[in-house]
Amino acid sequence: MEENKTRVAVIGGGSWATAIVKIITDNGRSNKVIWWMRNQEAIDHLKKYHRNPRYLSYLEINIEPGNITSDLKEAISGADIIVLAIPAAFLQDALAEISADDLKGKVIVSAIKGFVPQDNLIIGEFLHKQYSVPFDKVAVISGPCHAEEVALEKLSYLTIASQSQDVSCLIASLLSNRYIKTTTSDDIYGTEYAAVLKNIFAVASGICHGLGYGDNFQAVLISNAIQEIKRFVDAVHPIDRDIKDSAYLGDLLVTAYSQFSRNRTFGNMIGKGYSVKSAQFEMNMVAEGYYAVKCLHEINRNHKVYMPISRAVYAILYENISPTVEIRLLSEKLS
Ligand SMILES: NC(=O)C1=CN([C@@H]2O[C@H](COP(=O)(O)OP(=O)(O)OC[C@H]3O[C@@H](n4cnc5c(N)ncnc54)[C@H](O)[C@@H]3O)[C@@H](O)[C@H]2O)C=CC1
Ligand SMILES: O=C(CO)COP(=O)(O)O
């Protein structure tokens, strides 16, 4: 029966939105999925061929053509759970026509790993501040998980963080299946900040790879990176957490080492001498770490946490310092 279904709107047209639509549509007939994306050509292609033409295009998506739309208000009004999977830098623009009333009573799930610029907010804070969404109606999807491996149904683990255990359990059960295992957490702040920071360190890892540094150096870089994450999340939201959990350390490792990582790929091009513009142009995908490091630089003016790796990435991407020089200077600070 249509009225008994869990109605989920997935907002975004990139790889992660595509993978999340796959997970939820794979999870049985009890879910109704509404998929919003801004690109009408992609929608027309999807309706005809059941494939997203620009992202994970080899994947067949089993969604009712009538449930794919470029009308955001329609998508949101038709759902009880809204999953946001748009790069953070574009979120505010994408939601411009949406009001607090449109989101009232709904569970809002962020699958985004980035800061909303201007106010430099993590997504949970942004939803609370801009749309008065109560924190117990917000959940965050995180953990080491690349869309490309979900598409191949390779076993993956997601962490669902929410201040409401009912909400985290609801979203965990929506996403769990044969190839997705879920755990829940109440650490929204730590989960979000760690997920954003690891993108910056994956950019650093890519830069070093592009410059010719080897695995020995990478291991030291990433050991220092997890300490940098711990210092920062402990400063902004000091609670008892184990930074070795997969939502923190695991996400850093997969992003820093995986061939699928957008952030590492972007950094690698920077290390090889591409300009930021040409690296972005080559990718057709978004490296959140590029935007995040600028926001972090501003946020950290208040906290003054010692973050030499993030500082080096900022200097390379925003102060035009040569990667060769900056990473050589950084290498003196690592141990
Ligand atoms: N791809 C992955 O494996 C994972 C991604 N995420 C997060 O999901 C979020 C979405 O990223 P992906 O799906 O990977 O993106 P993507 O890199 O696959 O695709 C880029 C997306 O950005 C959109 N876009 C590009 N320029 C835009 C603009 N000017 N205005 C509005 N939208 C624009 C494109 O339409 C497309 O939907 C990010 O925060 C990312 O960190 C989180 C976990 C895994
Ligand atoms: O968050 C991710 C994996 O957990 C995706 O990282 P990239 O955006 O670098 O591909």
- The low-confidence runs, each spanning 5 or more residues with pLDDT under 50, are none
Structural class: alpha/beta
Describe the largest sheet.
Answer: 8 strands, mixed
The ligands bound in this entry are: 1,4-dihydronicotinamide adenine dinucleotide, 1,3-dihydroxyacetonephosphate
Mean pLDDT: 97
Distinct helical segment count: 16
Spell out the CATH superfamily of the largest domain: NAD(P)-binding Rossmann-like Domain
Looking at how many chains there are and whether they match, the oligomeric state comes to single chain
CATH architecture of the largest domain: 3-Layer(aba) Sandwich
CATH class of the largest domain, please? Answer: Alpha Beta
Strand order of the largest sheet: 3-2-1-4-5-6-7-8
CA-CA gap between termini: 60 Å
Strand percent estimate: 5-15%
Order of helices and strands: EHEHEHEHHEHEHEHEHHHHHHHH
Description:
Helices cover 53% and strands 12% of the residues. With 335 residues, the chain is of the alpha/beta class. The protein folds into 2 domains: 2-186, NAD(P)-binding Rossmann-like Domain (Rossmann fold), CATH 3.40.50; 195-331, Orthogonal Bundle (N-(1-d-carboxylethyl)-l-norvaline Dehydrogenase, domain 2). Helix 6 (123-131) links the parallel strand 5 (107-110) and strand 6. Helix 14 (288-303) packs across helix 15. The longest helix has 24 residues, at 188-211. 49% of the residues are buried. The mean pLDDT is 97. 1,4-dihydronicotinamide adenine dinucleotide binds at residues 12-17, 55, 85-88, 90, 94, 111-114, 145-147, 262, 285-286, 288. Catalyzes the reduction of the glycolytic intermediate dihydroxyacetone phosphate (DHAP) to sn-glycerol 3-phosphate (G3P), the key precursor for phospholipid synthesis. NAD(+) binds at residues 90, 147, 262.
